[in-house]
Task: inverse folding
C-alpha cells in the first residue's frame, strides 16, 4: 500500500494556489486545467481570482516564518474562530472514544464472550464504509456539515446503546451475556464504525484543511494534527484504567455524552463548505464571525 501511495503521489500535480502565490502563474494554470479539465481562459481567470482573494501577488514568493503565522492565527478574530472550529472537531473526534472502541475492539468483544471473528467483521465493515464515505463526501445530496451531524448522531446513539447492553452483563462483575445481547453489541459497534466513517473520520480532516487561509494553513493544520494525536494518546492511555475503574457501561456512557456534545458543537459552530472555493470559505467564515 505504501508503494501504491508513493506511486500515486508522483502523479499528483502541484496545488494551483501554491503555484499562483509564488509567481508561477502559467504552471498554476496548467495544474488547474489538469485537475478540473478547464479551458485555458477559464483556468487563467480562476488563478487571477486566487491571487486577488488570497491577498497575494505574483511577487509573493516567500512564506512567512512559523512564529509569524502563529501570531497571525491568534491576532485575528477570524483565524481564531477557524482554529476553534478545527481544534474542536479533531478533539471531539478522539474524545468521543474512537481510539478506544477501535483499538480495543478485540478486548471489548472478549469481555462480551465473543471471539476475534466479531472484530474481523468490524474491520471489514470499516473498510467498506471507507469507500462509501469517499462517495458521500462529494455527493451533491449531502454536505460536510450534514454528514458530520448524521455521523455524530449515529456515534452518540451507538455509544449509548453499548452502555445499555453492557449494563448488568459485565463479566468482571460476574454477569453473563446472552446471544441477543452479544448480537446487539456487534450491531452497535457496526453503527459506531459506520457513523464514524461517514462523519468524524474523513470530514474533520477535510474541514481542517479547508477552513484556514492559505498563508497560515500549514501552521494551523499542524496545531490541529498535534491536538488530534495528543488526545488520541490520552484516550488510549486512559481507556483500560477507566474500564477497570468504571466498567464498560459507564465508560461508554461517558463517551456517549461527549458524542452528544460533539453533535451540539457541530450544529452551532460548523458551517457548510461543500462546493465553495477556499477563498469563498474564507469569506463565509468572516461573515459568520461578523454576525456575532
Result:
Amino acid at each position: 500500500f505504501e508503494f501504491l501511495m508513493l506511486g500515486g503521489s508522483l502523479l499528483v500535480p502541484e496545488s494551483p494556489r501554491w503555484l499562483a502565490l509564488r509567481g508561477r502563474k502559467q504552471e498554476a494554470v496548467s495544474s488547474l486545467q489538469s485537475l478540473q479539465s478547464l479551458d485555458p481562459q477559464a483556468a487563467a481567470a480562476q488563478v487571477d481570482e486566487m491571487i486577488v482573494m488570497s491577498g497575494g501577488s505574483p511577487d509573493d514568493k516567500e512564506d512567512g516564518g512559523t512564529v509569524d503565522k502563529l501570531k497571525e492565527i491568534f491576532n485575528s478574530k477570524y483565524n481564531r474562530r477557524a482554529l476553534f472550529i478545527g481544534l474542536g472537531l479533531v478533539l471531539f473526534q478522539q474524545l468521543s472514544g474512537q481510539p478506544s472502541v477501535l483499538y480495543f475492539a478485540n478486548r471489548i468483544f472478549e469481555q462480551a464472550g465473543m471471539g476475534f471473528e466479531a472484530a474481523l467483521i468490524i474491520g471489514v465493515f470499516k473498510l467498506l464504509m471507507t469507500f462509501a464515505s469517499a462517495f458521500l463526501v462529494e455527493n451533491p445530496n449531502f454536505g460536510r456539515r450534514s454528514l458530520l451531524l448524521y455521523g455524530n448522531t449515529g456515534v452518540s446513539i451507538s455509544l449509548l446503546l453499548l452502555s445499555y447492553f453492557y449494563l448488568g452483563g459485565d463479566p468482571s462483575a460476574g454477569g453473563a451475556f446472552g446471544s441477543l445481547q452479544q448480537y446487539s453489541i456487534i450491531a452497535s459497534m457496526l453503527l459506531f464504525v459506520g457513523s464514524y466513517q461517514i462523519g468524524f473520520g474523513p470530514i474533520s480532516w477535510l474541514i481542517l484543511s479547508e477552513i484556514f487561509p492559505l498563508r497560515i494553513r500549514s501552521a494551523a493544520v499542524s496545531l490541529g494534527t498535534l491536538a488530534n494525536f495528543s488526545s488520541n494518546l490520552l484516550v488510549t492511555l486512559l481507556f483500560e484504567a477507566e474500564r477497570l475503574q468504571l466498567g464498560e457501561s459507564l465508560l461508554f456512557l461517558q463517551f456517549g455524552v461527549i458524542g452528544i456534545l460533539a453533535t451540539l458543537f457541530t450544529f452551532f459552530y460548523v458551517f457548510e463548505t461543500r462546493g465553495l472555493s477556499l477563498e469563498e470559505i474564507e469569506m463565509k467564515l468572516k461573515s459568520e464571525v461578523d454576525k456575532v
